[in-house]
């Protein structure tokens, strides 16, 4: 597939950049906290991280004891090599994939994760339907960057490979039109560590307070004004 080949070429050396890895390491902790909040005590024996990057989420899932058996598929060879170096105890499978074909049988995992992946994917619904084929349930997380300041979001996120930009409503629509039933969808602000990583100690604290309080008191206006994240637990219809 030409499209798959072009995506592989873009991301093949993506995780050789230390800046990307450092950002994902901090972001992975907040993503695992989001998973905890959304699944609300549900347990999953087998978990597949789809687009696992350099393995930061897998590492934290393993340490937290979420999932007895973990699997991963990743598009970039640099990501796969980084995952191998982590020596994650519960990681039973690790495969390269082309972004649209997952090398596992139907419903072979209890939960699939697509964390900050869909915003990079050219054919989102094709990707999500394939994920739903392999997994009984999915947790999908995306940035909500389609705000009044969309032009800035495109400039800032372009270097990280974002090609799709979402609001809560367009994310909800994407999931439903991909044949998924939404069990729970939540909007999240960035945590303090992430804000301070990007903006520094003092400015990061101010941004954290502003973003989280804005979301708390005026959620509809907040998501039209500032960037947030959305996470959804879904099952195939």
TrEMBL record:
Domain of life: Bacteria
Keywords (A to Z) from UniProt: Ubiquinone
CDD domains, per the entry: AdoMet_MTases
Protein name, UniProt field: Ubiquinone/menaquinone biosynthesis C-methylase UbiE
Gene3D superfamilies tied to this protein: Vaccinia Virus protein VP39
